[in-house]
Amino acid sequence: MIYPPAERRPVVDHLHGHAVPDPYRWLEDPDSPETRSWVAAQEELWRGHAATLPGRDRWRSRVAALTGAGSVGTPMWRGGGRFFLRRTASQEHAVLYRTGPDGVEETLIDPMELDPSGLTTLDHWQPDLDGRLVAYQLSRSGDERSELRVMDVATRRTVDGPIDRCRYAPVAWLPDGKAFFYVRSRQVRLHRLGTPAEDDALIMGEERSYGLGISYNGRWLTVSAMAGDGNDLWIADLSSSSPERPDLRVIQRGAGAVTAPAVGRDGRLYLLTTLGAPRGRLCVADPARPGPEHWIGLVGEDPEAVIGEFAIAGGELLVGWTRHAVSEISVHDLATGRRRGSVPLPGLGSAGGMTTRPEGGHEVWFTYTDSVTPAGVHRYDTRTGRTSPWSAAPGAVEVPELEARQLVFASADGTPVRMVVLARPGSGPRPTILYGYGGFGLSLTPSYSSYILPWVEAGGVFALAQLRGGGEKGAAWHRDGMLERKQNVFDDFAAAAEKLVADGWTTPERLGACGESNGGLLVGAALTQRPDLFAAAVCSAPLLDMVRYERSGLGPSWRSEYGSADDPEQLGWLLGYSPYHRVTGGVGYPATLLTTFGGDSRVDPMHARKMCAALQAATSGPRPILLRHEGDVGHGSRSAGRAVDLAADMLAFLAAHTGLEALEID
């Protein structure tokens, strides 16, 4: 394959005694004529290759059919009515609906009505405490730099906004519905309806990643801010201090633990925390004395399961857990925390997002999904102890039969790691996708996927590795895959690949690696450290230049996860695995598809551009190195049609280079 020319320039940074070459620095500028010309040539190269991929249309057809299951979210109850998201097979985006006390369903916000091009997304929404108003955030072309508006639910009129620079801002309404706390430009502010945003009171001026909470009656405000591998927390009693100047008292600061606070209807402060418990525990305290020295244990740490959330209903406490990445919900006495039983779940899958009525009641709603079950909403009744379906996914789909197996294997340092393998019955090596993430404490749990199912249906194997850096085993598991221990993640992934080969699931000639965002970093590390293990790789929206990742996108906010090149010791960690800097000439690299998105404001597409140029210049084998660039979309939400196109292209590429044929679609 003849690649577009990319000049290697003699750019070398001298950092803390390291000479760090960066020959493709010029590709960091997306607007330069040279970069534009190079990207256009790469896109032409990709389109030419894509047109030759066998079964590409069949992959797209099957992904689209399975995406037709749609989606539905848990209800948020306000003022006797409920707000919820739903997307049907015919809709490009999820739509926000409200069902009033009379049971009549009304459309509130349909992104396609606002922008028929499909480029506008609904990023976040929050009704006020009475359900009369809803604050909502829109962004365009995937940039996620949301504008916040307020809608009058009765009239559908916009009564406030837009307020810019509100990227996924949490909103905490005051009880009168005339003001709310929110985050703008990484600062906490108070906005009163009808006043200019520039006049908003500044509550927390330091630029950080904040979370906000408000009690059911609007009395207690909680503020969270990321801090290293934990968070700092404050609480204010708004009944005794002005909203413009809330008396914020410290709950925890510099504790190196993650704690989620909430004040219940009983007046107690509930604290879901990893402080002193890496897998998490639930404590209670008096909101007037919120410090850790006053916390009282309610539900203790489990030796295997990781605590995730809780809800209170009917005088009972429900606690959500994941045990080896499978969900369970336990039922406890609210006063003592003593376990009484468990909530029946539909299967071995993922349950979460528990919601209740703010005025109290005996019902709890939650979502449930597993590998063959589209996400739907279920209801648990504390009076009967029964779980029943509440709202199924709106679309009917036929899913393939498959088997799920959980494998345990040893990583390079002997640490036991788990992996879920999905496949149809059969034996012998098959084309396989190994997927991983391994970062930020996020867990890979069972879920319905219109990306995974077509692959398995066609006879392939799909494996999800639960690597260190994730949250499958709690805070300690996360810490063992971050900062100076980041290499553990890549070692776990390589060991997973070796396990799949050793157990006869696949061979290196039939194995593909796949990951997105931080998972793209994982795949970049895998293909540069162990190119012998993989025939193909898809590296989507990846971080790859770990020396300069802090200089763009949301990079500065990830220093607590990766470290900083400004620190001599931490630069050594980063250089040790930075994929861009480990590309070596004369190596036969796997067939690699790097995907980038023009509106991505989280991970700069420059990472993939520079890596693509480096790999194309270095590889000695016949397998292609390609760049798929897509404009007008970003890192996160996109229209269903664009998501289908991306998934189909990724599957077609991996199938072509691992030997899997797409099924004929009737």
Written account of the structure:
This protein has 666 residues and is an alpha+beta fold. It contains 12 helices and 39 strands. 50% of the residues are buried. The strands form 9 sheets. The protein has an 8-stranded mixed sheet with strand order 32-33-35-34-36-37-38-39, with helices on both faces. Strands 3, 4, 5, 6 and 7 form a 5-stranded antiparallel sheet that branches. It is 18% helix and 34% strand.
Quickly describe the structure.
This protein has 666 residues and is an alpha+beta fold. The chain is 18% helix and 34% strand. It is globular and about 70 Å long.
Structural class: alpha+beta
Beta-strand residue percentage: 25-35%
Distance between the termini: 35 Å
Shape: globular
Point out poorly predicted stretches.
Answer: none
Report the strand count.
39
Task: Specify the number of helices.
Answer: 12
Strand count, sense and closure of the main sheet? Answer: 8 strands, mixed
Please compute the radius of gyration using only Cα atoms.
25 Å
Q: What does the average pLDDT come to?
A: 96
Query: Which strand order do you get reading across the main beta sheet?
Result: 32-33-35-34-36-37-38-39
EC number: 3.4.21.26
Keywords: Hydrolase, Protease, Serine protease
InterPro entries: AB_hydrolase_fold, Pept_S9_AS, Pept_S9A_N, Peptidase_S9_cat, Peptidase_S9A, Prolyl_oligopep/macrocyclase
Enzyme class: hydrolase
What topology does this entry show?
Layout: E1 12-15, E2 18-21, H1 33-50, H2 56-67, E3 71-72, E4 76-78, E5 81-87, E6 95-99, E7 105-109, H3 111-114, E8 120-127, E9 133-140, E10 147-152, E11 158-163, E12 171-173, E13 179-184, E14 187-192, E15 201-204, E16 210-214, E17 220-227, E18 230-237, E19 249-252, E20 259-263, E21 269-273, E22 281-285, E23 296-299, E24 306-313, E25 316-323, E26 326-333, E27 339-342, E28 350-355, E29 363-370, E30 373-381, E31 386-391, E32 403-410, E33 416-423, E34 432-435, H4 452-457, E35 461-466, H5 475-479, H6 487-502, E36 511-516, H7 518-529, E37 536-540, H8 559-562, H9 568-577, H10 579-582, E38 591-597, H11 606-618, E39 625-630, H12 640-658
Helix pairs in contact: 2-12, 6-7
Enzyme class: hydrolase
Family: Belongs to the peptidase S9A family.
Keywords: Hydrolase, Protease, Serine protease
